[in-house]
Amino acid sequence: MSEAVEPVRRKLTQEEVDAVCLKHDRLWQARPGGARAVFAWMDLSGVSLRGRNLADADFTAACLIGCDLTGAKLDNANFFGADMQDVTLVDASLRRADLRGACLRGADLSGADLFEADLREGTIAAKDAKLGFRVVEARKRSDTEAQGAVLAGANLQRSRMTGVIAVAADFTDAVMKDCKLVRANLKQASFRGADLAGADLSGADL
């Protein structure tokens, strides 16, 4: 088994992140000097994006460990292969967001709106001098058993979660109508009060 690659991501300060968000706001307001927020392959760990409008932003393979995105508007944003461990997404809007291959261990998505979001499997590859390319994995955590993500009260209607690993995740009172959970790993997950009408759990591990 090959070792996980620790990619080089440029660490952004809170001031740098705020400057990018300001340009994104200008773009949405059709004002001069606007530009789409692109955080691909950046390290935003620990920064605050609380309440920001970052719809359509690019977070591909970004490191967002411990990032505060409470109440942020992230509709159609791209989080493909992002490391989102312990991120706070309480009441955030992630409608139709691309979360394929994103690591959400210990993330808090209580009350988040993930309508038609894509949480299927996905991998990011990085250049490697010897092998050409290698698969990038999420940073290892010191504890052996990762805490489950909290999606209590989240709107997951029609979201695609084929093959997702959601061990010990909390889906209490979540809306999961027509959710695709084919081959999902849902061991020890809690679905108390969740609405699973029309959900596809074919081959899921419960």
Describe the structure.
The protein is largely without helices or strands and 206 residues long. It has a single domain (1-28, 36-206), classed as E3 ubiquitin-protein ligase SopA (Pectate Lyase C-like). 44% of the residues are buried. The two termini are 27 Å apart. 7% of the residues lie in helices and 7% in strands. A two-stranded parallel sheet has the order 1-2. It contains 1 helix and 4 strands, in the order βαβββ. Residues 123-128, 131-136 and 141-146 have low confidence and may be disordered.
Features:
7% helix; two-stranded antiparallel sheet; little secondary structure; single chain; 206 residues; elongated; 4 strands
The CATH architecture designation is 3 Solenoid
What is the number of helices?
1
Computed CA radius of gyration, to the nearest angstrom: 17 Å
Q: Which CATH first-tier class would you pick?
A: Mainly Beta
Describe the main β-sheet briefly.
2 strands, parallel
Order of helices and strands: EHEEE
Strand-pairing-aware structural class: little secondary structure
Give the full name of the CATH homologous superfamily: E3 ubiquitin-protein ligase SopA
Strand order in the sheet with the most strands: 1-2
Helix content bin = under 10%
What fraction of the residues are assigned to beta strands by DSSP? 5-15%
DSSP summary, beta strand count: 4
Shape, please?
A: elongated
Low-pLDDT segments: 123-128, 131-136, 141-146
